TrEMBL record, chain A:
It comes from the Bacteria. This is Phosphate ABC transporter ATP-binding protein, PhoT family. Keywords: ATP-binding, Nucleotide-binding, Phosphate transport, Transport. CDD domains: ABC_PstB_phosphate_transporter. GO terms for cellular component: membrane. InterPro entries: AAA+_ATPase (IPR003593), ABC_transporter-like_ATP-bd (IPR003439), ABC_transporter-like_CS (IPR017871), P-loop_NTPase (IPR027417), PstB-like (IPR005670). It comes from Tropicimonas sediminicola. GO terms for molecular function: ATP binding; ATP hydrolysis activity; phosphate transmembrane transporter activity. The keyword ATP-binding applies. The lineage of its organism: Bacteria, Pseudomonadati, Pseudomonadota, Alphaproteobacteria, Rhodobacterales.
From TrEMBL, chain B:
It is found in: Cell inner membrane; Cell membrane. GO terms for biological process: phosphate ion transport. Keywords: Cell inner membrane, Cell membrane, Membrane, Phosphate transport, Transmembrane, Transmembrane helix, Transport. It comes from Tropicimonas sediminicola. It comes from the Bacteria. This is Phosphate transport system permease protein. CDD domains: TM_PBP2. It is a multi-pass membrane protein. Belongs to the binding-protein-dependent transport system permease family. CysTW subfamily. One of its GO terms (cellular component) is plasma membrane.
Amino acid sequence: MNDMRPLERAVETKEIKFECRDCQVYYGDTHAIKDVNVDIEDKTVTAFIGPSGCGKSTFLRCLNRMNDTIDIARVEGSFLLDGENIYDKRVDPVQLRAKVGMVFQKPNPFPKSIYDNIAYGPRIHGLAKNKAELDEIVEKSLRRGAIWNEVKDRLDAPGTGLSGGQQQRLCIARAVATEPEVLLMDEPCSALDPIATAQVEELIDELRESYSVVIVTHSMQQAARVSQKTAFFHLGNLVEFGETGQIFTNPKDPRTESYITGRIG
Amino acid sequence: MPLLWIVLVVLGLGLIGYLMGRSRALGSAGGDGRQLHSLPSYYGWHGFMLTVVPALLMMAAWLLVAPSVIENRAAAGIPDAKIAERGSRSLVMAEVRRTGEALDMAVAQGTMDEDMARNLRADFTDVTERLKATGAIITTTVDQPILEAAQNYRVMAKASNLYMSIAVLGLAVVGLVFAFMRSDKDFRARNVVEQGIKAILILASTIAIMTTLGIVLSMLFETANFFEQYSWREFFFGLNWAPDFRGNSELGMLPLLWGTLYISLVALLVAVPIGLFAAIYLSEYASPRLRAVAKPMIEILAGIPTIVYGLFALITVGPLIRDWIAQPAGFGNSTNSVITAGLVMGIMLIPFVSSLSDDIINAVPQAMRDGSYGLGATQSETIKQVVLPAALPGIVGAVLLAASRAIGETMIVVMGAGAAAAQMEQGLGAIINPFQAMTTVTVKIVSQLTGDTDFASPETLVAFALGLTLFVITLGLNVLALYIVRKYREQYE
């Protein structure tokens, strides 16, 4: 886990996972995202920050085509995942979402047992050949979600009976179980208390080992703690994108500086 | 004093109570509403409630109790021989009441004066003809004991009305004065009104529960009468339904119960899949505009009177099934059949299942669906594995509600499946063939109670036993539904 001295962090360049160019999103007549260009690196935590309604969640939802489920939303521009445009006609959004997993703001475990919650994705995508393999996937995912020790004795208990922080870690484990390449997190800690938040942040840092993680957050401390790259959105524009340390200590744009010092928000 | 007048006067007093309570409270605060504990209107409502509610409750109680008291007293004068002659006391009393009304009418029309109505004697004048002349319904000759009882009845009814008027109006005035005295700037009228509203709400729910209890009790007494005359073992386990009003009936309920369950089963087999699929389409796939049109259209089905469904079964579905399926396949040649009634009843039940299920599916939070889509599930996978399990208790509730409707349905059965009970003694083929006529408990309840029958015979009383059995079955279904909903409720929060 990173401490609060972002400047001293080692900066290394990594392979680019998502290459987004000239991205526009419209909700009906509203132009919600304007000309956004972002490169999201592999095995990196990228944080999207900005005031409410600035479009950061909207942009996040473009990355796994969740905006398709909203009738009035229209997306333009190119979103290249490993060089392939995810809005291409040949791409099946359902397959894409298996590759680009998502964790939501409010913990939303299914009203099923803990085991079935985790096994949901693998079952749909046929990842396990038999029960033993499925058991293995469930255990591995729960360990990844840092919740195995708390629930290993009650896998048959309903997932909805867990505490808020446990539910959110369960949802992360559920997303991890489908072996995604990118994990999108939409304010994953906003419904959690500080202790559960710390646990989830620790988990995000561990997930960086294997995935590219994109996190939307309202807490600038959180962005500073968990991310290596930070993007600042304002009124639908991407104002500034760069190393987290640089954004928080030496922002280039005056708007970024105003936001992180608390003058606009 | 006529009832309407009493009510109007009480309401008028209530209005006065409102104004007086309000103005006295305001007066005690020196006309400044801010000095009062509650808003001025609360003092007004307090006065209104104390004036109106106890008075009207008293009136309701009086109206419930007084008639039976008066009737008992009037009946006391009638000799036993008279009662024996007419069959039962209630028949004699009906005659007394009619005679009393006829006397009232005669006075109102001016053919008799009040004195005459009170002192008339049947032995000397031709009372019967004179009363008939008023247009009243007099079926038999009015003789002296009846006339005397009727005269007593009239006098007592008049007195009761007078006392009631005095008591009700007196109570209203007492309430008004009491409320007026209490109205003062420190009096917590707001809290009292709140309590009063709560009491009214409790009263309303109590009435609903008491009515159910009353229904059960009335059924219970008649059922007990039935089982005094007929063996319960033959009723519950008898395989033959052959009522005969000359006696020696066989009143086994199994053929009827089987008919009810069989037809309901067919109806549910039609209604549940169609209704559920329609609900899923409407709530998950249809565009909002289509949904806004289609949902009310489906609900129109629920507004069609069952007799119209019956006609549809009788003239369209029944002949169609006979000509195209039953006769060519050699299953029978009756237009009335289980499958006809079941099909049509199923159509009737579609909106029950679909409308309720649609609401329940819509109540499943969007976060559940998002979670599933976010894991790469398709829409139908999401519905099948996340939405439906979450909505299941509600859907089961909807199905059981539809089942209760199906079990209680009468019209469609008479016209679609006929009125002949299943011939269970003829073997399995006669039991399960869905192309034969069959009938249900409800149809037989109607047919046993209609017509000119002796009300004390087992052939008539069996209707109450059947009704109670049906009630117990639907009650059981409802309890089962509640149990399922509680046990399998999947909480999303």
